[in-house]
Amino acid sequence: MIRVEDRGGCCTITLARPEKANALTEPMLHDIAAAVTQSTARVLILTGEGKVFSAGADLDGMKAGLGLSPAWEAASGAIAAFPGLSIAALNGTLAGGAMGAALACDIRIAVPAATFFYPVMRLGYRPQPSDPARLAALIGPSRAKMILLAGQRINAETALAWGLIDRICDAHALIDTAMSLAEHALSADPGHVAALKRMTNGDTP
Q1: Is 204 helix (H, G, I), strand (E, B) or coil?
Q2: Which of 21, 116, 164, 203 could lock 55 by a disulfide, CB 3.0 to 4.6 Å apart?
Q3: Cα separation of 181 and 99, whole Å?
Q4: pTM of the model
Q5: pLDDT per position as a tens digit, 88-117
């Protein structure tokens, strides 16, 4: 399940399945896509409950074909298309298919204990179609292959050095840090925020 809080120009989506390490189910992915698409906020913050951001796909769901569901691309695509500033506030480890939602955000911050891995090679699955390109755009093709093909699990310091995340902050300050990064976007005209984002993405303003 997810929790959505939409107020003051900021939409916060929290993965709220801590007893399953916030493993993503198909309904959760649909709910994320719907929440992002329907929001009129200027800032989107994506975070998790507990000590893990997300362990990736729900294992029972994978047995039922979740890995091939278009819901993955619907969720990450909605986040990527969000016209305001999107921030992944990673409260813990980011793994597997959950990588897509974080990669689609504009900024990623994480706690010191976070680790990052995408075990598609070992498990025999393919990543979601847009994930490898977004990963390579952030950290370069060789490092993307280190994660996807060589199955490397990296810590927060390495993720910061590679450019996978943009800041490391204490767990108790995670959301406050996200809000501080959102301050200028929250006080700006939504059209101005959207135009600057398009320009930064290389699109026509």
Answers
A1: coil
A2: 21
A3: 21
A4: 0.96
A5: 999 999 999 999 999 999 999 999 999 999
